[in-house]
Amino acid sequence: MKKIISAFIFYCFPIRPLKRLIGISILSILFITNYSISQWNQLNSGSSVNLNKIQFVNSQTGWACGFQSMPTQYTIIKTTNGGTNWISQVPNLPSGNRFISLYFTDANTGYTAGADGLYKTTNGGTNYFAVTSTAIVVYDCFFVNANTGWIAQLDNAARIAKTTNGGINWTPMGAGLNSSEQISCVYFANENTGWCTGINTVYKTTNGGANWNAQTLPQTTLVNRVFAISSETAWILGYLTVLSTTNGGTNWVLKPIGTGNTPLSAYFLNANTGYVCTSPRNIFKTTNNGLNWIAQMTDTALVFNSIYFTSSDTGYVCGSSGKIYKTYNGGAIGIKPIGENIPEEFQLYQNYPNPFNPTTNIKYQITNNKLVTLKIYDILGKEVATLVNEKQSPGTYEVSFDGSQNPSGVYFYQLSIDNVQFSIKKMVLIK
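Predicted structure:
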């Protein structure tokens, strides 16, 4: 894994003149104390069926569901020990359902949406019963509490329906929606404000779904999902596209993650820090609301369909062939302490190997308990990655950089301590 190609150029000098040249901006500060080198680890789901959705209600209890054709298979699985073991709940359903989505409001109450309608459980999945007609395809479901929720359904009139009594009754909520456009996703920030997505349209409601208004996007694109953390801050996922808003959708801003990646699911911990999983097979993280994305993991699975975090450190992603991965450290990219001695001086080492393809390791040492920032820039001075942005204790550390999403060329990596001490070196990516 650490195959040495060659030792290359030693390139270290004071950074302040170069800092002005490349236009460094001070980004958000994220304090992290977990330096584990573990990233995303595969769990044994016990299933080989493509998984479409994963969700947890606490640190231990969660579900995943999915289906696939040729031959037709479907599954819903549950864990009560943080993903260590999964059990099938398909036998608990009165009939098979090609599962597209699910939503659980607590450890007992949840819903599964699919080609045969919406099913509900009130005992954690021991039993499920239908709460919509099995003739209606339900693409998505979302609940803000045990009683109030919405479904996106395949229906000739109302594309959205709402319940306020836990699915006993459903009220059509299609005013303002294009009746010829299929709604595939619905997401609410609270009981009043929510979004839904059509083929290439995003709609917003501010009255619980009674009325919907199409929002203006900066470009026409196929849209898949929406994720919101408040009535003002939300993200849209589309074909090769991520868009974000901080003013309730009045303006949407493009936040590209790289060529050839179509995001299928997102989970944001706050307005700045979030994750997207994509087709094909990648997980990306941002700590500055999509200004930069760091590739965290890739796999031979065709797609990663759904991502969910139970805390700032613990997250899950599911996708093709029944695969589920888990991280215990926010998917940290290999930050680890080296040795036990406290260094006598601040130092940034040459990356190793160099040249590299596609990964390399960068080692540095610090002498005080300070804010450490390690960033990567291209030859034009554009920031392409933030590898470290956290307060660290005195010691020697090593972090890996994955350049698989970057073109061949010369790059600079800059280490700064409390934005006072600076050092920079050059490295070469050859593909």
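Summary: Residues 16-22 form the longest helix (7 residues).
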